[in-house]
Amino acid sequence: MDRRLQDILKKSSSVVFFGGAGVSTESGIPDFRSEKGLYKARQEYGYPPEEILSRTFFDRHTEIFFDYYKKNLIYLNAQPNKAHRALAMLEKNGLLKAVITQNIDGLHQKAGSRKVYELHGSVLRNYCMDCGKFYDTAYIMDEANCRGGIPRCRECGGIVKPDVVLYEESLDTSCLTGAVEAIERAETLIIGGTSLAVYPAAGLISYFRGNNLVLINKEPTPYDSRADLVINDYIGKVMEINE
Ligand code: NAD
Ligand code: ZN
């Protein structure tokens, strides 16, 4: 682990981590905004990803939505990386109180983290829009359960929608409240792998009143000047804990 980060953790009694897509790039899942990210690989559909991933688009062009979604957002074989594992270990040691993530890949839980606020939901959960029955991702990926690529409920034939927050949709209130409370109580807040461009998630920082704000990101963010420690590097390398 980076020595400066280690020093801060040593004098902290409670730490919260808030992360974004950059936390999972070292697991092979592209982020949205850096060079290799999804925002560059979009021409094929004729719509920008923000539009495809909006609720209006989902309702109007459900088939195209699912085609894009299944090809670009599902990485069922991805494994947690050094950053996910370090965070799970810090929680186990009692220092880390919560992980708040904008990611939808479920990798924090896969690494062993227990207290995880998934602000944007999870690709691992899906539910029938009519009867509410839950399905796993293998179900929606199986063409046998789809009509025209759109997954359908086994019980009632309703559309099975991923439990992810689309653009235009609001965040889950209890998840947001939990995240705000965790940040308010933290002595140290580590923000990592996020461009801090997506609201309201980015606004969460304003609830922090602790002592140490740490920013770990490959490239500068608009909040760098507010931080006590800025590390512009790969987060897996920065956070790695040697077991
Ligand atoms: P973003 O794509 O806007 O920003 C990612 C940031 O991480 C960039 O600034 C990039 O420079 C940095 N980064 C990339 N790899 C890094 C690494 N290895 N170490 C350190 N920094 C690294 O992502 P965001 O701010 O999280 O917002 C994007 C939105 O897209 C979120 O709402 C999220 O739900 C969604 N998304 C999720 C996933 C996922 O679940 N893994 C992947 C892509 C997008
Ligand atoms: Zn149903």
Description:
- The radius of gyration is 18 Å and the shape is elongated.
- The protein starts with a helix and ends with a helix.
- Helix content is 28%, strand content 19%.
- Strand 2, helix 6 and strand 3 (116-118) form a beta-alpha-beta unit.
- The chain has a domain at 1-29 and 80-120 and 171-243: 3-Layer(aba) Sandwich (Rossmann fold).
- By secondary structure, the protein is an alpha/beta fold.
- The protein has helices at residues 3-10, 49-52, 55-60, 62-72, 82-92, 107-111, 137-141, 173-185, 235-239; strands at residues 15-19, 96-101, 116-118, 121-128, 134-135, 146-147, 150-151, 160-164, 188-192, 212-216, 229-231.
- The protein contains nine helices and eleven strands.
- The longest helix has 13 residues, at 173-185.
- Strands 3-2-1-9-10-11 form a six-stranded parallel β-sheet, with helices on both faces. A three-stranded antiparallel β-sheet has the order 5-4-8. A two-stranded antiparallel ribbon has the order 6-7.
- It binds nicotinamide-adenine-dinucleotide and zinc ion.
